[in-house]
Every structure is written in C-alpha cells, then in structure tokens.
Amino acid sequence: MVFDMTAFGKLTRAGIAAIGLGALAVPAIGALAMPTEEAGDQAPADAPLTADQMAESKALFSQFSCGACHALSEAGGTGHIGPEFDGNEGLDKGYIVNMVNNGQGAMPSFGGMIDEGQIEQLATYIMQVKK
Q1: Digits of tens for pLDDT over the chain (131 positions)?
Q2: Phi then psi for 107, rounded to 5 degrees?
Q3: What is the dihedral sign for C-alpha 72, 75, 77, 83?
Q4: Which pTM does this prediction carry?
Q5: HSE-up of 115 (CA within 13 Å, CB side)?
Q6: 33-36 long-range contacts, Cβ below 8 Å, gap at least 24?
C-alpha cells in the first residue's frame, strides 16, 4: 500500500491551519460578546444584601482595588480606566461575575483569588449600590 505523502501533507497542514484559526476565533468572539437580556428573560432580582454583607462587599471592593479603575461612589471608587458602575444601566450581574472571574483587556482575572461566593456577593453589591 502506497500513500501519496504530498497530498496527505497538504491536507494535514490545511487541517492544522483550520484548527488554529478556529482556536483564535473563539476568544475573539468572546471578547466582543456583550451580555444581552430580552424582555422577560431576566433572572429574578437577588435578595437585598444584609448590612454585614454590604460591609464585606465594600471591603472586598477596596481590598482588591476595584475603585482604582471603576467609579462606584458608595464604595469610594473614583477610577476612570474601566467602566463606571454608577449610572451604568447596561451593566448586569452575569457580566460582572464573568469579568471578575476571567478578566479581559486591562481587567485582570480574580478567579481563584476571590472565591465564587464572594464574587457573586460582590456583583450583587455593585448592582444594588450603583446609582
């Protein structure tokens, strides 16, 4: 049995190139995607945080220097590098959780540094106090 290695080599290189391009396209598409919610598709609002949870979340916001990049007046955040949280009607909890976990662009990933429960609570806090 004899194989034409020239043809086999071309198919292999083309296949590898297609896989490589596909691997590059997935993160690029994810970077451009913004969360959207259709009317009626919104998750129920989180229960309001307790006073202790509010204080914990504010401390977490400060501890990880979120206010250096993000404006959130209730937490003393005055940054102008990342999106402002105050007055940001397009901001949703899922987006915050995703960005804190995974980062993007200048935003570092805090996944693994902050536990999931704290990230969820921080996102709820931001959504509840943004003006």
Answers
A1: 555 545 445 445 544 444 444 444 444 444 444 454 444 444 455 789 999 999 999 999 999 999 999 999 999 999 999 999 999 999 999 999 999 999 999 999 999 999 999 999 999 999 999 98
A2: -80, 115
A3: negative
A4: 0.66
A5: 2
A6: 34/90, 34/95, 35/92, 35/94, 35/95, 35/98
By CB neighbour count within 10 A (0-12 exposed, 13-18 middle, 19+ buried), where does 86 fall? middle
**Distance separating alpha carbons of residues 131 and 77, to the nearest angstrom:** 13
Asked if 130 and 88 touch (Cβ cutoff 8 Å), the reply is yes
How far is 100 from 54, CA to CA, in rounded Å?
18
β-bridge partners, 72: 77
Q: Which helix (H) or strand (E) holds 71?
A: strand 71-72
- Locate 57 and state its tokens: 């979340």
DSSP 8-state code for residue 79: -
The domains found in the chain, sorted by start residue, are 51-129 (1.10.760.10)
